[in-house]
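Hi R.,

As promised, here are both runs. First protein below:
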Amino acid sequence: MEVYAPGSIKLLGEHAVIYGKLWISAAIGLRAKAELKSNSSGKLVVNLPDIGKRAEFDREGLSSIYGRYSKKSTIKGYVEGSDLDIEILPFATIAARLYSQYQADIFNKEITITSEMRRKKGYATSAACVTAFTVCLVKAAGVRMTDGEIVDAARDGERVAHMNANAGGGDVNTSFYGGIITYSNSTGPHKAALNTQMNLVLVDTGPKRSTADTVGHVADLYNNDRKHTEEILNRINDCSVKGLECLKNNDLRGFGQLMYEDHELLRQLGVSSEGLDRAVEIGRENGAYGVKLSGGGGGGMAIAIGKNPDKLVAAFSKAGFEVERTSILMEGARKYLADQV
């Protein structure tokens, strides 16, 4: 059995979403894969060949993990108190919940998770991996769970990976449902009824700071100068609200201008980088409708849209950036559960 889950990019609204604002994300045609095979080990084997990690779990082991996770005081304490590899722990936590809370029969199985995406570049690779993993185990075990329960179980992997109780709200939902997703803490996820076609140019601007680092930086700004930071966050929210209307009207030029504005606001928050700003400059010089950072920032990926993506690819490549082209993927991992709904 194979389950694919798309990565995602943040079109508008990152960082502001943590403070209750609206964000817009999109599933992309680069995916993570969970492949499940039966074995006779009596255990669940988790294999991560992309990073050379592998682990086995029996019933007692997963019960113990779930006991610790369900009684945790903090996620950081749970992570730091575990003797499992930090790369394995997110998957073990999900499996422990499926087994202990939903009585999922997940033993005598080996599940291998791989990805078409480069890690830590802004593709939400970890969210795609835990989503594919969760859906694959749920389908294999024939467990009846609501969409919300499946997403929340997958989010446990993101919560552990990022040591943040709020992690994964946007990324996992985007990977699960596909298409264009809007999200805020007050409204939750919503798959927009849009069929927007967008040629996306993904630009690797170089090494990036960790998302935890950039999130912490914005939190410091918010705590030290709440009024000014809130003003910037509200303007980012305005970009998201206006951007959604542009997408509804298929106004990609208008949407692109909001991308430029959003990037400038994120730059003012201190989460851009020299490479990201250079990518924005190159995009402007070569007719891009819009260019902005995507994700936590501090380096990593920029996204660009425009009428002539070939020209953009050539310009970014000439400047020494690694570039990929993709488009919005309208279906997410949920489609593999269609026969169970």
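And here is the second one, sequence first, then its structure tokens:
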Amino acid sequence: MNLLKQRSVQTFFIIATYLFLAPYLPLDCHRSFYSISLFLKDILLWMLPFTVCTFIAHAISSFEKRALTFVFVLIAFEALSNLASVWYAFSCGHFAASSLHPLSSDSWNDDFSPLWRLPLTRPLWWTADKGSFLGLSLGLLAALRFPSLATPIARAKTFAEKISTRIFAKLIPLFLLGFITKLYQTNLLKKLGVQYADFLFWLIGALVIYIFVLFWIGSKGSLSICARNIRHLLPAGSVAFSSGCSLSTMPWTIEGSAKTLQTPELARAIIPATTNIQQIGDCIANTFLCFLLYVQFMGHAPSFSMWVSFSIVFVLARFATAAVLGGAIFVMLPIYETHLHFSPEMIAIILAFNVILDPIITSANVLANGALCRIFEMVWVRDRKTTTT
């Protein structure tokens, strides 16, 4: 019964049931599933700027003026570490894409369409990047100048969080079902499933290398200290792999990270602030797969300017996903569509991989956070020494 409560198990059961019954279902039934998924996606696109704005504003305003230097250094460190992982995935994607064959226009049947769509048209200016910068501005105003803004910001954030976690997060299996229907009806499911199985090994290899380098940097190049620090964090990584939740793993992450620090108390301040924001495994996995999907569907790599724009919004959105436990992917999907021009088929594939790879990604997030906790201590101590002198 506990397994049935896990969203990944629910999703697998629903998709497996659909694939078993698919040959016997009428066409309108398939189109109905697809219509529901597109409806949920359209609602998400309408909500995204508001959600991103309120979450970022609340995260910034909640710091107030307490330990302002520490807060800003930590935020900058989290943003830069996420950005570095995005561009690392971009480089790995270039390397892996050399063996990827672009899809020809006749690889799938594009006649499959929904029964209905949301009639409201979203304005072009109503996008995630606008919400990100507005949230950043409101948060800074509330923290530094107008503390009275914190209350309405908190109420707006609570409203958006309830919709995201109590409604959309529970609809992930249904949301994915419609797009899997689209892949099945257009003959893409089997073709991509076989081809992308090979790239999962590339992805796991890229995660292992990056996390090892983080531990190596934190040990200042000492392999023995590096191995010791990894050993301290392995219990947290194994708990994250089995539970699929970085937040519930936090006590083990704090305990393991504290053993790697010269000032163990820092772990209690850093890990809670970074657990759901500084998600290295998530950043690498999603941007690596985004790159490969873009190459395969578009026939060429995304331009440098496109990836710069995407990476900035992607990193800012990580601050917005901190409160969307179980539903963070819903914040990211519209960003893929807006900045990388993802089609419904591409959305379905990236969402399916997030469900399948969730234990690996969560474990990578926890291990990377532990490694980065030590690196942040090195940066913070050096910064404090520079300030005092």
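A quick note on the second one: The chain has one domain: 3-388. Let me know what you think.

Best,
J.
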